[in-house]
């Protein structure tokens, strides 16, 4: 599409855009433009109703809500897993909603990492989210293999080359754990290519979908991915600290969970209270503790909404917004003032749901000035601001207005008016 740098063009883009109907379903301040959908999604009115429904069921049924809730609380994880499966290209029985990102990494590595002979190493990349690395190191330490971590380096400090990852595959590596989308730069990795290469070397491979689930389609089963995990509070708008999710390829259903817990027990006999653990016959076996109902209920609304739109349509609208955002920045920002560059790949097939912008100087103060002006973004050390326009509640006019504010802050050097003092959360 050929863009134009004026407000009327943005309004014209909005005119026939069916996503605007969803914008009204979310709580938003009129004086705020919320561009951190990749950090914490906004509250929808239907998600609020789901929370209230769960509270009403608790009030009415008490403990009987486990069977009398609609749906029964006892089956929340499985039902939400069924609803998630189309988004990640999986079978319903391969998908379960449970735990949290880091807890699920621990569970999956405890289940899949079985060092034997020369295969003792776990491969990661240097750009992965810190919590993933903490968990991997912790699992290695449990086996006395602290030195068996293989870290694939980035050539530019922003992105990864699949060829470099594949070159690091060898017969000493047991497992590779990689992100689908890099949390800093927004680069999308080629999951199928990496999975095929890993399997050619006899390596099990898993992916962290935290920055891709709900914003772009996946084909985990088709690609043959062994396992995956994600959070639901970013593009799936399930709320702060919402329950996470995980995927296990059905070829691994005979694998016992490394961390057994009663919620992973076969549901038909769970309440026989036997001390002999009988795992569920599918991904449900990887559950550990009782599902937190109040932090799971909003996900019903979010998944209903995404499935109603269709994940392919969400992806199309997301790419349109990030492309338009990049265009406006190129048109309106004075590059000499702070010397910025977009580090997210321009190619649609290589880009996730956000745009990462590197500033040669004053990135933190620019992000702070944006927030003070009502444009909510996030800053990532040492010099990057991330802009994540969720197509569910961000319009093209929102993006135009956001870049106008950004241009004023940069071109007029208004960031100089902002203190350099940093908060604990950026």
TrEMBL record:
<feature type="modified residue" description="N6-(pyridoxal phosphate)lysine">
    <location>
        <position position="234"/>
    </location>
</feature>
<feature type="binding site">
    <location>
        <position position="208"/>
    </location>
    <ligand>
        <name>pyridoxal 5'-phosphate</name>
    </ligand>
</feature>
<dbReference type="GO" id="GO:0097053">
    <property type="term" value="P:L-kynurenine catabolic process"/>
</dbReference>
<comment type="pathway">
    <text>Cofactor biosynthesis; NAD(+) biosynthesis; quinolinate from L-kynurenine: step 2/3.</text>
</comment>
<feature type="binding site">
    <location>
        <position position="101"/>
    </location>
    <ligand>
        <name>pyridoxal 5'-phosphate</name>
    </ligand>
</feature>
<dbReference type="GO" id="GO:0005737">
    <property type="term" value="C:cytoplasm"/>
</dbReference>
<dbReference type="InterPro" id="IPR010111">
    <property type="entry name" value="Kynureninase"/>
</dbReference>
<comment type="function">
    <text>Catalyzes the cleavage of L-kynurenine (L-Kyn) and L-3-hydroxykynurenine (L-3OHKyn) into anthranilic acid (AA) and 3-hydroxyanthranilic acid (3-OHAA), respectively.</text>
</comment>
<keyword id="KW-0663">Pyridoxal phosphate</keyword>
<dbReference type="GO" id="GO:0009435">
    <property type="term" value="P:NAD+ biosynthetic process"/>
</dbReference>
<feature type="binding site">
    <location>
        <begin position="129"/>
        <end position="132"/>
    </location>
    <ligand>
        <name>pyridoxal 5'-phosphate</name>
    </ligand>
</feature>
<dbReference type="GO" id="GO:0030429">
    <property type="term" value="F:kynureninase activity"/>
</dbReference>
<dbReference type="InterPro" id="IPR015421">
    <property type="entry name" value="PyrdxlP-dep_Trfase_major"/>
</dbReference>
<dbReference type="GO" id="GO:0030170">
    <property type="term" value="F:pyridoxal phosphate binding"/>
</dbReference>
<dbReference type="Pfam" id="PF22580">
    <property type="entry name" value="KYNU_C"/>
</dbReference>
<feature type="binding site">
    <location>
        <position position="290"/>
    </location>
    <ligand>
        <name>pyridoxal 5'-phosphate</name>
    </ligand>
</feature>
<comment type="pathway">
    <text>Amino-acid degradation; L-kynurenine degradation; L-alanine and anthranilate from L-kynurenine: step 1/1.</text>
</comment>
<feature type="binding site">
    <location>
        <position position="102"/>
    </location>
    <ligand>
        <name>pyridoxal 5'-phosphate</name>
    </ligand>
</feature>
<feature type="binding site">
    <location>
        <position position="211"/>
    </location>
    <ligand>
        <name>pyridoxal 5'-phosphate</name>
    </ligand>
</feature>
<dbReference type="GO" id="GO:0019805">
    <property type="term" value="P:quinolinate biosynthetic process"/>
</dbReference>
<dbReference type="InterPro" id="IPR015424">
    <property type="entry name" value="PyrdxlP-dep_Trfase"/>
</dbReference>
<comment type="subunit">
    <text>Homodimer.</text>
</comment>
<feature type="binding site">
    <location>
        <position position="233"/>
    </location>
    <ligand>
        <name>pyridoxal 5'-phosphate</name>
    </ligand>
</feature>
<dbReference type="GO" id="GO:0043420">
    <property type="term" value="P:anthranilate metabolic process"/>
</dbReference>
<keyword id="KW-0378">Hydrolase</keyword>
<dbReference type="GO" id="GO:0019441">
    <property type="term" value="P:L-tryptophan catabolic process to kynurenine"/>
</dbReference>
<dbReference type="InterPro" id="IPR015422">
    <property type="entry name" value="PyrdxlP-dep_Trfase_small"/>
</dbReference>
<comment type="similarity">
    <text>Belongs to the kynureninase family.</text>
</comment>
<keyword id="KW-0662">Pyridine nucleotide biosynthesis</keyword>
<protein>
    <recommendedName>
        <fullName>Kynureninase</fullName>
        <ecNumber>3.7.1.3</ecNumber>
    </recommendedName>
</protein>
<feature type="binding site">
    <location>
        <position position="262"/>
    </location>
    <ligand>
        <name>pyridoxal 5'-phosphate</name>
    </ligand>
</feature>
């Amino acid at each position: 599409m050929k863009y134009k740098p004026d407000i009327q063009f943005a309004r014209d883009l909005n005119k026939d855009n069916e996503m605007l109907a969803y914008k009204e379903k979310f709580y938003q301040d009129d004086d705020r433009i919320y561009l951190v959908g990749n950090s914490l999604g906004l509250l929808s009115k239907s998600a609020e109703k789901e929370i209230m429904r769960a509270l009403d069921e608790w009030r009415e049924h008490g403990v009987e809500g486990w069977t009398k809730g609609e749906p029964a609380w006892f089956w929340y994880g499985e039902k939400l897993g069924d609803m998630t499966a189309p988004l990640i290209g999986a079978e319903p029985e391969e998908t379960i909603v449970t735990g949290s990102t880091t807890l699920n990494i621990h569970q999956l590595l405890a289940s899949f990492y079985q060092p034997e002979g020369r295969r003792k190493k776990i491969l990661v990349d240097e750009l992965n989210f810190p919590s993933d690395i903490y968990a991997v190191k912790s699992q290695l330490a449990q086996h006395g293999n602290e030195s068996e971590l293989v870290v694939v380096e980035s050539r530019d400090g922003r992105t990864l080359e699949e060829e470099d990852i594949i070159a690091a595959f060898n017969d000493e590596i047991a497992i590779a754990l990689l992100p689908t989308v890099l949390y800093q730069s927004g680069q999308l990795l080629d999951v199928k290519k990496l999975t095929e290469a890993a399997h050619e070397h006899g390596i099990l491979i898993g992916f962290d979908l935290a920055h891709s689930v709900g914003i772009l389609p996946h084909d985990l089963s088709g690609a043959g991915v062994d396992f995956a995990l994600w959070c639901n509070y970013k593009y799936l708008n399930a709320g702060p600290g919402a329950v996470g999710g995980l995927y296990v390829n059905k070829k691994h259903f005979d694998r016992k969970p490394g961390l057994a817990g009663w919620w992973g027990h076969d549901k038909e006999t769970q309440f026989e209270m036997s001390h002999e653990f009988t795992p569920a016959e599918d991904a449900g076996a990887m559950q550990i503790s009782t599902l937190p109902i109040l932090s799971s209920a909003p996900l019903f609304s979010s998944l209903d909404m995404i499935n109603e739109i269709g994940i392919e349509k969400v992806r199309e609208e997301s790419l349109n917004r990030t492309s338009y955002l990049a265009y406006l920045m190129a048109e309106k920002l004075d590059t000499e003032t702070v010397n910025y560059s977009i580090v997210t790949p321009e190619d649609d097939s290589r880009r996730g749901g956000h745009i990462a912008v590197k500033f040669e100087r004053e990135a933190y103060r620019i992000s702070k000035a944006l927030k003070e002006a009502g444009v909510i973004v996030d800053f990532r050390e040492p010099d990057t601001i991330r802009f994540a326009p969720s197509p569910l509640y961000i319009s093209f006019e929102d993006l135009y207005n956001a870049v106008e504010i950004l241009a004023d802050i940069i071109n007029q050097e208004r960031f100089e008016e902002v203190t350099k003092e940093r908060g604990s959360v950026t």
